[in-house]
Amino acid sequence: MCCARDKDVLTGVASNLQASDKKFEIASNMQSVDEKSGISYEDEEDEMERDLAEDAVWKRIQQNTFTRWANEHLKSINKVINNLETDLSDGLKLIGLIEVLSGKKLPRHNKKTCFRSQKLENVSVALKFLEEDEGIKIVNIDSTDIVDCKLKLILGLIWTLILHYSISMPMWEGEDADLVLGSKGGPSPKQRLLGWIQSKVPDIPINNFTSDWNDGRAMGALVDAVAPGLCPDWPEWSPNNALQNASEAMGLANDWLNVPQLIRPEEMVNPKVDELSMMTYLSQYPNAKLQPGAPLHPRVNPNRVRCYGPGIEPAGVVCGAPTSFTVETFSAGKGDVQVFIENPIGHLEPVEVTFNNDRSRTYTVTYTAKMEGLHKVKVLFTGKEVPKSPYIVKVEGTAGDFKKVTASGPGLDPTGVMVGRPTYFDVFTKDAGKGQVEVIILDQLGNRNTTLYRLVKISEYVYRCEYVAQNIGVHSINVFFAGQQIPKSPFGVRVSPVADSRRIRAYGRGLQSNGVRVKELADFKVSTADTGEGDLDVKVIGPGGVKEKIEVKKVDETTYECIYKPMKEGRYIITISYGGQEIPRSPFEVNVGPHKESKIRAYGPGLKGGVVGLPAIFTVETNGETGSLGFAIEGPCQAKIDCQDNGDGSADICYLPTAPGQYAVHILCDNEDIPKSPYIAEILPKADFFPERVKAYGPGLEKNGVIQGQCTDFTIDARKAGNPSSLDVSVMDENYKSVDVKIQDNKDGTYKCTYCPTSKNKHTVQVNFAGSAISNSPFRVYVSEPTDSSKVKVFGPGVEKGVKAQIPTHFNVDAQGCGKGDLQILLTDEKGKQVPVQIQDNEDETYTVDYVSPTPGTYKVTVMFAGEEIPNSPIKVNIQPRVDVSKIKVDGLESN
Prior knowledge:
The protein is an alpha+beta fold.
């Protein structure tokens, strides 16, 4: 690109860390070439005037990209820039952005800006911090330029931040920091990034950050190079489909590599694409990590085709009613789908195959059986049968009466369904006769495969459809029985965006999953403090989908009390919405039944004491027992209670004392105190220490990764907590047995804690400072068994007698009970040449290994688990010729 020039400053600014003072500088020499950044500046006056035009394409792209880059970082503090030209003028969002990037708090500044002088002061604080604290030298920009909304200078400032915090730091794991921070003779940020891309994509000549990306193929090649198998079809892409190519590649990167689209596909394929914008976007790839569950797939593989739906179920299809099933080919590559349906007398039935042109590359197959009996459904992909084909379908009976089928549930309500939140509805088929239930959900654009759903039979006449809408807008939910839409179908459901409902709390006995009994009042409260105006909507659905009565009354301005009375045993679903949006943990599931005694365990610093103004925390565990829990605090003042369900049978209880003295902490089970309740907690006056500033980190506090029988450690940093005070650290296993903890004082305000778990499963680590829990305490650590490669078992036809050359085979690896570890398989022939193998993780600690031996001979199978070779490895496999010559007989060669 041609960087715009101005007598005051450059629009597109580039620089590099200097070897001497490691500072950035916005270049002011308009006639030179910045060798370190690799970005040149045009000398021609007409070129300058063209690029400085207000509507210059590259300039608009640059402004858009820089705005998206800033907003990606501002997400963490809930701020957003709508107009880069004006939104930084008061300095507040600029300060917020710099604090996020640097990880440091800026000096005191004006939180509210009513006057120009206050805005100038804020921007000055930001620029001074960048120069003095971060070592970024800024030339020809002062606070008036930002306050006066000079876009060219603002773009130059943002580019300096991008260079310093995103591009000029080490961009990939293992990169030599000396090269990054090196002398003037070292590579520039542009050269380093371009060199990395060229090393990843040697098959495409990439020499710049503009025109070489216009047809989208380079983008597909880069995505597949970073995550092999994520975009394997890019070599077949046509350069004429540039926008489609770029959209597919960038969409995959966004979904599975966590690479936000700082530049849009239509901007990338524009001939006037901005070079700095492309560098900003592409600098995310060196550290991109593939997310679990990514749809990696080879070029073409019929074994990866998945078929599902009522039309291939062994039973349920009836005569005269249309039925269907889905063929998903995403993981199999691109190819044609053919379907043949053979009736009991051997004739082929008519079948309709429709390509849905969706992301999963699915086909919808529809047919109508005309006679009873066994039907064969054969599915072919690229001319080869897919796994489990042919499907045997037993057609029995005739279609029932679709008019007698009903459906209800929160997932069919016109409002209340949230994007990304699970919901459901039930279909009732009693007295309707025989027929299959089918559900088709169309989003606001009419796409049928954007909504994730599953249909399960929960009783003889009841089917449940659970779904998660992925898009906002009105969805059409179509419910079929025996090929016909049931009454009231299709149902129109408006899917709303997820609101920030973190401040809304619902708590009480009536929301406990267990403990509520038939004909007893079940109550709970909803607190809407500091959430703004909105209508509260509470629904209770009882067994069989019956809507139950519930009384909702307003206790005060921000608290509602809700009471319902269950009359039947079974499962009740409670949906709570505020302002048209569901609150956290809604819908609640309550199992109403007979009372059961509970043994409840309570522990934590909040049961012993705390400090005024700081949260006092303790934990309650049910140990798998049922019961309705309640909490009450009695003391010198009212203490607000907050209950956080951990989802593992435990809950963290937090109350905030506001006056010193003794507090009685009541822990109730079915309105009765548990043993040892109430606990007496001594609350001390506020002192000059801050437990909330204590931080703890390290492998010993990670949720996963701790191994049974192996010592682990973590660090406690109390340097910002004020005057030294008491430190209390404890570790308990799942049976509440204490685990010894060794605490080493490093004499600098930090402590090293070491413990050795002797049992597996959940452990609880509590860190208390001055009698109060520190941030994120208690920590829950799940201890796993140590790896033992000697227990790994290998079996199957691929390691036994009878394997033949050029014929696909497989064997199985069973690593259940062997701990966590990576599996490695090496197959070599007699000459030591490696033969490719395909390892499929079955996600149950077992694996399936497929291979094809090219020639006969003795092969070796080497199996490594967790870095160690298993017993009996390597395994010798004798590969036989594909044709057995000894069994060939020749007749007719008699002497006469």
